[in-house]
Amino acid sequence: YQLIVVPSHGFRDLLLQIKPLLPDEHKICWATKGVEVGTGKLLHQIVKEELADRSYAVVSGPTFALEVAKGLPTAMTVAANDDELATVIARAFQGGNFRVYTSHDVMGVELGGAVKNVLAIAAGISDGLGYGANARAALITRGLAEIRRLGKKLGAEDETLMGLAGVGDLVLTCTDNQSRNRRLGLALGQGKSIHAAVEEIGQAVEGLKSSHSIHLLAEQAGVEMPICQQVHCILYKELPPQDAVRELLSRQLKAEF
To answer: What structural domains does the chain harbor?
Structure first.
């Protein structure tokens, strides 16, 4: 078994590097969250392209690394294209204060983990602007609606998106400052530049690259994702955060569901 934990923009390159070293019977598992830059492809699609018919699994959910390392109670999901592999991976991680659930919905687990990074930037921007708890709750809720719309179009199961890898990870990342994506949003909302914010954080901010990839994926799927679109405009088109908020609030009246 091989466990891969690299930023999504380096995922394909790593697969190409290890491919000659992998025996046919070896199985791949990753804890990376994101979408490939430039193609809008999810990571399991890259695995299929580069490693053909190999069994694979993804682990995801509301899991801040520091809290896991401290042994604090945590739960996550492992999804695989092979039920036996999902069970093996779950048993390997399960123990003590760590609870693992299995799933066959790789698409749903990956989507939840990728899109929430962009929405966490949005929540951070809102808080950085001082818009308060009401606005944050609205962003999380409408952000979840965007994840579910995209998931429905791409064949993800709605139950997955309402579980640990979807709403669980979304709430965690949007509400706690351990999230680098949320901290990026906070800095932007407070008027700092992207460069200054990323330098201050000092670690990879997955949502920065994922924003463009999710934008591309939504366009390819023909799915409306207004919050993610406005984050993309802030990050890549220098739209002032206040203008992005005005754009969202001035959208045409519509039914919630």
So the answer is: 2-105 (3.40.50.720), 107-250 (1.10.1040.10)
Please tell me the distance from the alpha carbon of residue 41 to that of residue 220, in angstroms, as a whole number: 10
Pairing of strands 56-60, 28-30: parallel
State the Cα torsion 198-38-231-117 to the nearest 10°.
-70
Query: Helix and strand tally (H, E) in the chain?
Result: 13, 5
What confidence score (pLDDT) does residue 1 get?
Answer: 86
N-to-C CA span, the chain: 43
> What is the per-residue pLDDT for 53?
85
Which of 27, 33, 41, 116 is the catalytic position?
116
For the question of whether the overall pTM of this predicted structure is more than 0.90, the answer is yes
Q: Is 116 a catalytic residue?
A: yes
For the chain, list residues with pLDDT below 70: none
